[in-house]
Amino acid sequence: MARSNNLHSVAAIFDTPNKIIKAAEKVRDEGYNKFDVNTPYPLHGMDKAMGLSSSKVGFVTLFCGLFGGSFILLFMWWTLAKNYQLFIGGKPFFALPAFIPITFEITVLIGAVSTFIALIAVFFKLPFNNHPLHDTDYMKTVSVDKYGIYITTEDPKFDKEKIISLFKSLGAVSTDLIYLPKQEKFSMFNLKFVLFLIFVAAGTSGSTYLLLNKLMYITPFDWMEFQEKYTPQETSLFFGDRRSMRTPVDGTVAKGFIPYPYKGIANPTEVLSNPTIPTEDLLKMGKKKYLTFCSPCHGNFAEGDSRLNGQFPNGPTLHSDKIIKYSDGMLYHIITNGQNAMPAYDLQITRHERWAIVDYIRVLQRAKNAKNSDLVEIKKESTTNGQ
Amino acid sequence: MANNDSGYIKKVLPSKIGKIGLILFIIGAVTGLYGYIFDPSRAVFSYLTSFWFLLSIAVGSLLLVAIEYAASATWSTPFRRMSEFLASSIPLLIILVIPLLLSIQYLFVWSHTDVVANDHMLQAKSVFLNTPFFSVRVIVILLIWSLFYYLIIRNSRQQDNSGDQALTKNNIKLSIIFIPLFAISLTLQSIDWIMSLETKWFSTMFGVYLFAGATCSALAALAFISVLLKEKGYFHPKITKDHFYSLGTLMFVFICFWGYIAFSQYMLIWYGNLPEETFWFMQRWEGGWKFVSLFIIFGHFIVPFATLLSHPSKTNLKKLKFISIWILAMHFIDLYWLIMPSMHGNGLHYSFSWMDISFLAASVGIIIFMFNKMFERYNLIPVKDPKLQRGLDFHL
After folding, report:
1. CB spacing of A44 vs B310 below 8 angstroms
2. Which among A173, A86, A190, A217 is positioned nearest to A129, based on CA atoms?
């Protein structure tokens, strides 16, 4: 680096730790206060020899660490216990023991990073990012195997010749005059640096944009995006009617489909007879389907107590005499065809399931109108089952 | 007495110190014996707590000596003798354990054959937890500790006369063998004496927890005695605040370590939420134990942490003295908290007893008495240790 004729400091190099500590003590005793020592590793007793008070950087660590810890604790409280409560493993929303490791980590992280930034800020005197000692032979020596001390011209007692003779009397291996660089300070906010930052920001965001929004749609990376197929409602260039979705041939019937002969008849004179045997499994399925499709309007026990609370026309109770007297086929017809406000359910519920619902409705009706004689039946069953 | 090249002048402690120790021991032992005769099942629990208090300080001190050698630490060399003095009650533990071994039936459910016969889990555990194997294990471990105490301390004392540097090398080898042995043996002892009180409970961190507590208490005892001797002028004049800063830092480190281990043990059990593990903490959250648990969190971790955090407080001898006594007290409360709630195993219900105090007094009496005896006989500083000069010249 080009150096000017302005003197920055007088430096000396020593070759043992004891000598440098003695030198620092002597320089301090002589009344110099703008001096510093550079050693390749920390030396015990140097703080005292230089007359330094204890470092204040610990307070930066303490306050930033405490800030980080309390911030993350507040953050976890807000996200997990306040704003969007998540139930995790039966633990309370504000599960402090689970948060402590994270709080600890963030405290250490923020404390350490802020200490690092604070040290750089103090050492470089941010926003400047250069030090006059940087890139000198003196610095190259003392960062390897020698111990150096320098006194800057800012010191009120600075006298070049006196200092050189002082260092020599202390047993310095060599003394050195360090001149300031031609350009003394490099601000972080000079044009070059700011342009560099803008270039990096633009480069990073631009390349990210290109990667995520352009590169993925360039052949051959687009092979999942564009497939050799027609999507619904797309125009066909192959068929004459330009429809990519073809209509089936007249009279086509879906596999397993059995047409319902009384579809669309409001009051049929004849209906189907129930083809099912009400086994336990069938009734269980009927209950499940009933609770899914019927109970919102007719109520869980078919009492017409809709849980929609009048937002929708209430379904009637299924325990009325009229409905009890309906044949199974008639109930099946109503489910399949719909009645009054009730829509047809033949598209949502399969044939077998509709019959199961009919059986289940019969169970509900029977349970609602239980008689004393039923108890006798139950007792009979339990004795035959040996219970 | 002898004035030597390290600048250390041997002085004798006032004779009342030994008497205080002896009187404390006699009062504690007599009242303890009285309690044992009238209520043996309650007395053994008090005895166990105080036995562990003595054990953790003694063995923890031997560990500090071993670490000092193994790490070739220099700042702690002037302090090493005090840890050696504190460890001098290790051979006594072999005698002191006999009353406990004779009253195993009052302590452990697994020693009752009729209970074990009706409990599948206890039967499965009886391979390890049975009275003969237990007694052998305990005695063997105490013998191993005593052996290492004898070997390491003998070398250290011989060096005071001969100044032979090979003795330091021997001790480094012994220490390197002792440290892993200590880890295994203290874990076994903690499982045997404290974890098996609650026979069906288990925690893999338990040994580490007691190791952390033992090291904290050994360091606290060392700090307390060294500050006291420094204040009264018995210690080497070249011992500066930098030495006490290092001692305070080590204490701070082990307080953090204790907190880390205690929390890890709690958090894993809390998160796992398995009934076979959580009941141990539930017992310690019932009734008055809740306040003891909270007090341990604050007293054993937060108070010493906050006190020792800043640089000046570690060099402030008064603060160091206060916090070391505090940590010793907290270690006793911690042991009390580990042992006492498990008393229900034999159909007992916990209630505070004066016997807790009398056995504690006896164990503190033993520590003081032994320290005084050693102090009379040997140098407080290893005067011909090759590391001593660097240790005395230590600066931050």
Report:
1. no
2. A190
Instruction: Answer whether B396 touches A (CB < 8 Å).
Output: yes
Minimal CA separation from B252 to chain A, in Å: 16
| pLDDT digit string, tens, across residues A231-269 | 888 888 888 888 888 888 888 888 877 888 888 787 787
Check if B249 contacts A (Cβ < 8 Å).
no
8 A C-beta contact, residue B395 and residue A44 = yes
Contact predicate B104/B56, CB 8 Å: no
Cα(A1)–Cα(B169) distance, integer angstroms: 52
Verify whether the Cβ–Cβ distance A58 to B311 is below 8 Å. Answer: yes
Answer yes or no: do A54 and B267 touch at CB < 8 A: no
What does the alpha-carbon distance between residue A94 and residue B183 come to, in Å, rounded to a whole number?
A: 37
Name residue, tokens 């229900």.
B344
Instruction: Give A13's strand partners.
Output: A148, A174
- How far apart are the C-alpha atoms of B226 and A322, rounded to whole Å? 100
Residue B237 CA: distances (Å) to CA of B232, B374, B396 = 11, 21, 17
Helix, strand, or coil (residue B9): strand
Enter the tokens of residue B266.
């709690």
Name every residue whose Cβ is closer than 8 Å to that of residue A10 and which is 6 or more positions away in sequence. Answer: A150, A151, A160, A163, A164, A167, A175, A176, A177, A178
Q: How far is Cα B360 from Cα B32, in angstroms, rounded to an integer? A: 10
B394 contact A CB<8A = yes
pLDDT digits (tens, 9 = 90+) for A91-143: 888 999 999 999 999 999 999 999 999 888 877 777 666 778 888 888 888 98
CATH 2.40.50.100 for domain A280-384: no
Strands A3-14, A174-181: pairing kind: antiparallel
ipTM: 0.80
* Phi and psi at residue B99, to the nearest 5°: -55, -35
Chain-centroid distance of CA B381 in Å reads 22
Which band of pLDDT confidence, cut at 50, 70 and 90, is reported for residue B2?
Answer: very low
Q: Where are the domains of chain A?
A: 3-181, 190-247, 280-384
Distance of residue B197 Cα from the nearest chain A Cα, in angstroms: 27
- Residue A341, pLDDT score: 84
